[in-house]
C-alpha cells in the first residue's frame, strides 16, 4: 500500500496506523512511571507523553513482566518444553529472544534452555536477537 492509499485507509478508519515498515512493540506514549500511577489502559487512552530520553529498548514489555510467573510454573511442570521445537526449529528460547524479552530469556536460561540450539536454518537465539536489534537480549546471550 502506497503512502496515499495508507492515508485514505487511515482516514476511513479514523486512526493513524503509522508506518508499516516500523514495528512498534509498545505504544509511543507508554511510560512506566505513568503506567504505575494510572494503569496501562489509563495511559493508552489519554496519558501524558513520556520524557524524550526514555530508552524503550531497555524497558520490558508489560506482557513479559506479567507472564513471568506463569512461565516459571509451566517450566516447573513441563521441563521437556525447553527442548521442544516448532515447525521452523525454534525453541522457547528462540521465541523469547525474537520478542526481545530479557525476563523471558533469563527465566528459560535459569531452567536450563540451550543457548546454542539452532533452528532449521542454523540460527541461534543470539543470532536472532542480534538480527532484530534487541540490544539487551543480545548482551545477555553473548555472555554465555
Describe this structure as you would to a colleague.
With 144 residues, the protein is an all-alpha fold. It has two domains: 1-56, no CATH class; 60-144, Ankyrin repeat-containing domain (Serine Threonine Protein Phosphatase 5, Tetratricopeptide repeat, Alpha Horseshoe), CATH 1.25.40. The protein has eight helices and no strands. Helix 5 (92-99) packs antiparallel against helix 6 (102-110) and helix 5 runs parallel beside helix 7 (125-132).
Descriptive key words:
single chain, 144 residues, mainly alpha, Serine Threonine Protein Phosphatase 5, Tetratricopeptide repeat, 2 domains, elongated
What CATH calls the topology of the largest domain is Serine Threonine Protein Phosphatase 5, Tetratricopeptide repeat
By DSSP, the count of extended strands is 0
> How much helical structure, as a percent, in the residues?
40-55%
Which CATH C-level class of the largest domain is it? Answer: Mainly Alpha
Element-by-element helix/strand order: HHHHHHHH
| Overall shape | elongated
Largest sheet: none
Number of domains: 2
| Count of alpha/pi helices | 8
| Low-confidence segments | 34-39
Q: What is the percentage of strand-forming residues?
A: under 5%
For the termini, the CA-CA separation is 42 Å
CATH architectural label of the largest domain: Alpha Horseshoe
Amino acid at each position: 500500500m502506497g503512502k496515499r492509499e495508507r492515508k485514505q485507509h487511515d482516514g476511513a478508519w479514523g486512526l493513524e496506523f503509522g508506518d508499516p515498515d516500523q514495528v512498534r512493540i509498545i505504544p509511543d506514549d507508554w511510560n512506566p512511571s505513568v503506567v504505575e500511577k494510572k494503569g496501562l489502559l489509563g495511559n493508552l487512552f489519554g496519558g501524558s507523553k513520556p520524557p524524550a530520553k526514555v530508552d524503550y529498548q531497555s524497558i520490558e514489555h508489560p506482557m513479559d513482566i506479567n507472564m513471568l510467573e506463569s512461565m516459571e510454573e509451566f517450566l516447573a511442570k513441563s521441563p521437556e518444553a525447553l527442548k521442544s521445537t516448532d515447525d521452523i526449529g525454534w525453541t522457547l528460547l528462540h521465541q523469547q529472544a525474537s520478542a526481545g524479552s530479557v525476563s523471558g530469556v533469563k527465566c528459560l536460561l535459569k531452567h536450563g534452555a540451550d543457548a546454542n540450539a539452532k533452528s532449521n536454518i542454523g540460527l541461534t537465539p543470539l543470532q536472532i536477537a542480534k538480527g532484530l536489534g534487541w540490544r539487551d537480549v543480545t548482551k545477555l546471550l553473548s555472555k554465555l
